[in-house]
């Protein structure tokens, strides 16, 4: 990749993860288990994965003027992410993602509180237009408000910058629908595909996931990746597509695996590797992340990905 940076725009905050000791979860009472606090946010997670893969990364986000917000920005800066343009919002709490995991590490239910992201508005993007204009690529999550997303794509088109998007959740994915033709890369999971502009049919296997990826490309996306958790991923572009099975892994915690996949795929695209190789990098990063309690793999590196590259 030529000298440059990736501009990541979206959520950054705290993640509170609880996991009961047994599968016999009892509702409306206390369950013994483990509770952990981690740095969070889909955009932030992708940014850290990119920084660990030696991609210069700038993060535009908003946090509260509180201890949590200072912790988030200090942590990200220490991990190599440029946070000097992040917005600190007085009188507002830093975003928090509260997740209840199954004993095996898969997500049972979550609550996301990221109202602070309203501060990442159109005026904020115009204020940092030069950052967008000079970026090699822009990556967003769908926590951005609809008006902010509209401004983002207006600026990206003005400056001819590629945009990659993570739909984040089914509840937010629809915000990206008007802009699918402007997306260089779109990475929904199976449940998010149904929220993307009326894609029909349940995505549950090899064939249906490839069909969904091809539909997204037919709708204008340059590259579409549909992730299937422990089944793997399907991908497509204008020349075709394929399916890559997941690497067998002992799942410790599923949180952050999808963000690791997106970050590694973007790393591959930036370095102009073949599309199939970029997808295998993504699957490998997700598999390695699943095997740790951390949201981002602490020892992630280019060498580690290629040493364990999925086949």
Q: Would you write up a description of this structure?
A:
The protein has 311 residues and is an alpha/beta fold. It is 34% helix and 23% strand. It is built from eleven helices and 15 strands. It has helices at 42-52, 67-78, 122-127, 129-134, 146-159, 170-173, 190-193, 206-218, 257-270, 275-290, 302-307, and strands at residues 6-9, 13-20, 33-40, 57-60, 62-64, 81-82, 87-89, 95-101, 107-113, 137-141, 162-166, 185-186, 223-227, 233-237, 240-244. A nine-stranded mixed β-sheet has the order 6-4-1-10-11-12-13-14-15, with helices on both faces. A four-stranded mixed β-sheet has the order 3-2-8-9. Helix 6 (170-173) links the parallel strand 11 (162-166) and strand 12 (185-186). Helix 1 packs across helix 9 and helix 9 packs antiparallel against helix 10 (275-290). It is globular, with a radius of gyration of 18 Å. The two termini are 24 Å apart. The model has no long low-confidence stretch (mean pLDDT 93).
What is the compact description of this entry?
By secondary structure, this protein is an alpha/beta fold. The chain has helices at residues 42-52, 67-78, 122-127, 129-134, 146-159, 170-173, 190-193, 206-218, 257-270, 275-290, 302-307, and strands spanning 6-9, 13-20, 33-40, 57-60, 62-64, 81-82, 87-89, 95-101, 107-113, 137-141, 162-166, 185-186, 223-227, 233-237, 240-244.
Give the topology, please:
Blueprint: E1 6-9, E2 13-20, E3 33-40, H1 42-52, E4 57-60, E5 62-64, H2 67-78, E6 81-82, E7 87-89, E8 95-101, E9 107-113, H3 122-127, H4 129-134, E10 137-141, H5 146-159, E11 162-166, H6 170-173, E12 185-186, H7 190-193, H8 206-218, E13 223-227, E14 233-237, E15 240-244, H9 257-270, H10 275-290, H11 302-307
Parallel strand pairs: 1-4, 1-10, 2-8, 4-6, 5-7, 10-11, 11-12, 12-13
Antiparallel strand pairs: 2-3, 8-9, 13-14, 14-15
Helix pairs in contact: 1-9, 9-10
């Amino acid at each position: 990749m030529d000298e440059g940076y990736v501009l990541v725009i979206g959520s950054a905050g705290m993640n509170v993860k609880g996991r009961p000791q047994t599968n016999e979860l009892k509702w409306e009472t206390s369950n013994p288990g483990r509770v952990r606090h981690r740095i969070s946010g889909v955009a932030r997670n992708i940014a850290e994965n990119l920084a660990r893969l030696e991609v210069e990364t700038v993060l535009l986000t908003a946090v509260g003027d509180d201890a949590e917000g200072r912790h988030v920005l200090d942590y990200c800066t220490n991990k190599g992410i440029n946070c000097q343009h992040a917005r600190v919002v007085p009188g507002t709490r830093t975003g928090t993602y509260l997740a209840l995991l199954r004993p095996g590490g898969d997500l049972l239910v979550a609550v996301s509180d990221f109202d602070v992201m309203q501060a990442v508005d159109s005026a904020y993007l115009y204020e940092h237009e030069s950052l967008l204009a000079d970026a090699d690529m822009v990556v967003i999550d769908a926590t951005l408000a609809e008006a902010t997303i509209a401004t983002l794509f207006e600026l990206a088109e003005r400056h001819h910058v590629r945009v990659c998007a993570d739909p984040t959740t089914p509840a937010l994915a629809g915000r990206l629908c008007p802009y699918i033709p402007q997306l260089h890369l779109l990475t929904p999971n199976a449940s998010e595909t149904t929220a993307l502009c009326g894609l029909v049919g349940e995505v549950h296997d090899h064939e249906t996931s490839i069909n969904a990826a091809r539909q997204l490309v037919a709708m204008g996306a340059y590259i579409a990746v549909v992730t299937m958790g422990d089944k793997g991923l399907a991908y497509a572009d204008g020349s075709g597509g394929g399916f890559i099975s997941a690497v067998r892994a002992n799942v410790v915690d599923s949180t952050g695996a999808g963000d690791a996949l997106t970050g590694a795929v973007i790393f591959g695209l930036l370095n102009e590797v073949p599309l199939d190789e970029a997808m295998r990098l993504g699957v490998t990063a997700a598999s390695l992340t699943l095997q740790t309690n951390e949201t981002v793999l602490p020892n992630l590196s280019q060498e580690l990905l290629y040493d364990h590259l999925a086949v």
